[in-house]
Amino acid sequence: MTGKAKSVYVCSECGFESPKWFGKCPGCGKWNTMTEEIREPVRKTALTSARSSSPIRSIPISAISVTEEERYHTGMSELDRVLGGGIVKGSLILVSGEPGIGKSTILLQICGCLGQKLKILYVSGEESARQIKLRASRLGVESDNLYILTETDIQAVMEQIRLDKPDLFMIDSIQTMNFTDLNSSPGSVSQVRECTAAIMRTAKALEIPAIIVGHVNKDGAIAGPKVLEHIVDTVLYFEGDRQMSYRILRAVKNRYGSTNEIGVFDMAENGLCQVENPSLALLSGRPTGVSGTCVTCMIEGSRPILAEIQGLATATGYGTPRRTATGFDYNRMSLLLAVLEKRAGFYFANFDAYVNVVGGLRLDEPAGDLAVALSLVSSLKDKPINSKAIAFGEIGLAGELRSVTNIEARIGEADRLGFEKCILPYHCLSRISRHFDQIELIGVRDVRQAFEAAVQ
Ligand SMILES: Nc1ncnc2c1ncn2[C@@H]1O[C@H](COP(=O)(O)OP(=O)(O)OP(=O)(O)O)[C@@H](O)[C@H]1O
Ligand SMILES: [Mg+2]
Ligand SMILES: [Zn+2]
């Protein structure tokens, strides 16, 4: 080894590097995320040996033979949908989410299904073999093709994979893996990066797909998977309230399928169950006859999902009114309140306002504006919105309602679930060519009209 080891400061959230320490990361603006790491100079041997074993050669694209992209079906159609049709051979998938959300659970369930015909190696650096066995029994996972390895040394793990040649391997979690040549601690940015790169090389060289778990940590003690996102092929995020049983799996990056596709699961004693009719599940237990709730239809990936939006407006005790939004953008909510005041004459200046999207969903398309506005106005006026009505539409700064995309899919979903009224922007009406027998379509031009139609 030549040269001297030097110390660098690396942001655990975004991977920003600097020779100097900062309290606030110049890369992403987060506080207290810079941690010191000792960098060894690059080892010559590793570089030269890689060169000599594989001479660099470019090939014409026409000379590359392709067979139909091979995918393994996981046995869970919700998961397959998120993955874009199944696990692609040689791909690297990152599953991340908050502690306890169900990452290890879904991995074992995949083992349960794919283990019937494929050889799988499950590497855990977090739990003992006994603990994994206990969970597997609880989930009803049984397979003679499933191998467990409890190990944290990534080089030993890769060696084992080369020996075993499984059809699929899983690493739970990347933060516990350790590259002994680096002297920073497991979970630091350089460790995570090196370990992922090692996994990537093995996955691509042997054409074995790999699934890795990455933790997210709010206080930044562990490297955020943001650094990993660039390396891997697919990034799946587990979302949802831990208190509630619904879990939403979302593809935020996918080299082999579309993003924004979601899968909905329900966490039960025997593992994650697929929710095949999410609209129905998310609307169950909805209060009727009370003010401050409105149903909308959002498009998640390729499918429409009905969601309940709750709004609450209460008189401000003292000082400036509070505004809180859960599952909805805070700034968008402030903007909607401003439009409601200025353009529609609904005054929120002395009211605290809260918005919540029920079921842990995130409503981040403009089509959700109208339902948010209606739920707030309904609460302000204490007038319940017709429980058989849904509303969608984008609200412009002049208070006008603007047309949105996927109109027929949205109406169709509401119709299927027995809704009787759909309040939508007037301009959408001319773009509907299909006939709906049950649901009445009410085109409105502004929020006031929409509210009047909605309370009837
Ligand atoms: N007996 C049980 N019945 C129902 N649900 C359970 C049971 N045991 C565990 N769970 C659920 O499983 C969740 C833990 O799942 P899992 O261990 O897969 O999470 P994880 O994302 O891997 O967590 P970590 O980040 O700690 O590794 C718990 O939050 C709980 O909701
Ligand atoms: Mg786990
Ligand atoms: Zn940063």
Describe this structure in words.
- The chain is an alpha/beta fold and 456 residues long.
- It folds into three domains: 6-44; 69-276, P-loop containing nucleotide triphosphate hydrolases (Rossmann fold), CATH 3.40.50; 281-454, Ribosomal Protein S5, domain 2.
- The strands form six sheets. A nine-stranded mixed β-sheet has the order 8-7-9-10-6-11-12-13-14, with helices on both faces. Strands 15-16-18-17 form a four-stranded mixed β-sheet.
- The N and C termini lie far apart (79 Å).
- It is globular, with a radius of gyration of 26 Å.
- The protein is built from twelve helices and 23 strands.
- The longest helix has 18 residues, at 189-206.
- Residues 103-104, 126, 172 line the site of magnesium ion.
Write the layout of secondary structure elements.
Blueprint lengths: L5 E6 L5 E2 L15 E6 L4 H10 L17 E2 L4 H7 L3 E2 L3 E6 L5 H12 L5 E5 L4 H11 L6 E5 L3 H11 L3 E5 L16 H18 L3 E6 L10 H4 L4 E6 L6 E9 L7 E7 L2 E4 L3 H6 L9 E8 L2 E13 L7 E4 L3 H15 L6 E7 L11 H13 L7 E3 L2 E2 L5 E2 L4 H10 L4 E5 L14 E5 L2 H8 L2
Parallel strand pairs: 6-10, 6-11, 7-8, 7-9, 9-10, 17-18, 19-22, 22-23
Antiparallel strand pairs: 1-2, 1-3, 4-5, 11-12, 12-13, 13-14, 15-16, 16-18, 20-21
Bound molecules: adenosine-5'-triphosphate, magnesium ion and zinc ion.
